[in-house]
Amino acid sequence: MQFLYREGADYVFMDNESYDQLQVPSNSIGDAVNFLKEGDTAVLPMYKDEIVGVELPAAVELVVTETEPGMQGDRVSGARKAATLETGLIVQVPLFVNIGDRVKVDTRSSDYLSRA
Q: Which pLDDT tens digit goes with each residue over 20-67?
């Protein structure tokens, strides 16, 4: 299914084959809300017309919307800083990552993987 948009606390998905739309409460999606952005595709396993989870790719690319300014020359030190991503997820990133950068994040552990 393709994630279309948020409507209040619900997430609206569209079946890619039948084009039917499905409203899913955020509590049925769990931590996947931290990785979903409009237009993304996800597998929603169902049991008796109820969503039982969300299967996402192992990694997603998200844009950094808020972080401290980058530091030139701190590429090797291994130091980290907090960055807020477009979905609201906060991850620890290297000091050279700036606002507007696309980063790759592991959907299983919420860890920064690399710049995209």
A: 998 988 888 888 889 998 999 989 888 887 888 888 899 999 999 999
Distance CA 99, CA 13 (A): 29
Total Cβ atoms within 10 A of residue 88: 10
Residue 73 has pLDDT above 80, yes or no: no
DSSP string covering 35-54, please?
T--TT-B-B--EETTEE---
Tokens of 102: 């696309």
DSSP state of 88: S
Structure tokens at 35: 């990785």
Q: What residues are paired with 82 via a beta bridge?
A: 92
In angstroms, the CA 99 to CA 22 distance is 33
Residue that has been written with the tokens 């980290």 in this structure: 80
